[in-house]
Amino acid sequence: MTSLWLASRSESDAPGIATDPFEPGARYDEVIVGAGLTGLVTALLFARAGRRVAVLESRSIGAVATGRSTAKLSLLQGSQLQKIKAHTYQAIVQAYVDANTAGQQWMLDYASTRGVPVQRRDAVSYAGTPGGVETVGREFRLARSAGLDVRLVDTLDLPFETYGAVVLPDQGQFDPLDVLAALADDVRALGGVVIENTRVTGVRASDPAEVRTSRGVVSGARVHLTTGVPILDRGLYFAKLKALRSYAASYEVPVGKAGGAALPQGMYLSVDAPSRSLRTVPGAGGGAPETLIVGGNGHPVGRAADTQALVDDLHEWTALHFPGAMPTHSWSAQDYETPHRVPFVGYLPRGRGRIYFASGYDKWGMTNAVQAALTLFGDLMGDTPSWAKVLHHRVTLPAAIGSGIGANAATGWWALKGWAGALAGPATDALPMPAEGEGLIGRSGFRPTATSTVAGRTCQVSAVCPHLGGVLTWNRAETSWDCPLHGSRFAPDGTLLEGPTTRDLRV
Ligand SMILES: Cc1cc2nc3c(=O)[nH]c(=O)nc-3n(C[C@H](O)[C@H](O)[C@H](O)COP(=O)(O)OP(=O)(O)OC[C@H]3O[C@@H](n4cnc5c(N)ncnc54)[C@H](O)[C@@H]3O)c2cc1C
Ligand code: FES
Asked: Which residues form a coiled coil (predicted)?
């Protein structure tokens, strides 16, 4: 499944985003691992300060979360403020809003300077059921208390029933690949390099830090892990983050005389179940016909019974409310939730002050990636933003500890379930050949195996995640093997796609 953004770049005349050659043994000031939004903004900030920068990307620019997001650049983020408040305290809510405001403003200024199209839109958090009305009210009050100019409305221009909403005017939306392409160009123009197809497999916190990759070793005075979840186990952050996957699809919708009403123009997110996110994308040249994006149906990675059913459900819901809607692309992606719902940004324990990371944006990375990059840059240049100081010194409250314990208990249960199911299941030799698009778990002695058939090719690989031994589950929508413990994902042939591990599956 490919996102609208990634597909339209490869299908259009827009220039591809170039990659630089890998130079074994090269020495840089800042090595940045991962070319998503966090990595490229961090790289640009350091490159502007005259640092020699290398961005190493295991796949391609934007291939993972950023190129698959719905790219709303908003300070009203569903019911995020009350989730943060429930796990922290008011000063943290305020610092979070201030951090995101700085991230949003940086991005708006950057896009305007670089001519990246941004559509200004109202952000809307709506109640899709009567049960969501109180959540809307709480978000309104918290947003107001943090200085956001929100208002409450009773009705919306949506073609389905809603029960009131909180609205923040004049937020933004864009094509995330446009932003990444501009950032990569600017990093290069300042002497930096952005190198794709280079997986970092380990970092030694020596002076300079040694960065081992699939193509050789380079070194850097500092290393920044902007890889979604950190790829090093120091600090056990993989266990503190919850990997959550969700779905999106784009649609051509008939509007005007022969079709229905014009598409709703806000950026909408339900505060209750079923989760639904909506926005539009302008047609070529910024005009009609617009494309509708609908997202939702999230779940912890590797733990959904049938991922394809979740995509089908999005299509059915959209067809019901936007008659004649024709899907053009559907895709999914994952992001990471922290126990207190505030991103982790800073130095990695036992990294001797040479290894830094940023993660845990809870699906609000368009503003949070930028605030994280501003934090990493400010901390190292001796100019930490005031909101970052508050976020750094946050005290962990019992609610956040409880949330972490609950998440780890669930992980333990999935570890047991995976192994017990695999060992009680059929031997690999006794399995039928998987049908096209299907994957089956078997066992070869005490070793779980994963067999799948995709595009006519049958592959058999180990079903044991090389990170910490979780037994993988089949993701029918993405035709991938996904780890229910900490969210690593693999292609049918065992190639690593994303997650905390740095290794492929054994064949
Ligand atoms: C379905 C969905 C919709 C979303 N919609 C929105 C939205 O509307 N608004 C919003 O604000 N946020 C949204 N988000 C969140 C947002 O997309 C993410 O928070 C953000 O893109 C994360 O950026 P990143 O740079 O940290 O990670 P990524 O974009 O995932 O970049 C990390 C990069 O690191 C690379 N990498 C990983 N391991 C290695 C390694 N070992 N060596 C080298 N490279 C490596 C990966 O290949 C990847 O390219 C959404 C998220 C999801 C899942
Ligand atoms: S991602 Fe940790 S065990 Fe699989």
From this structure: none
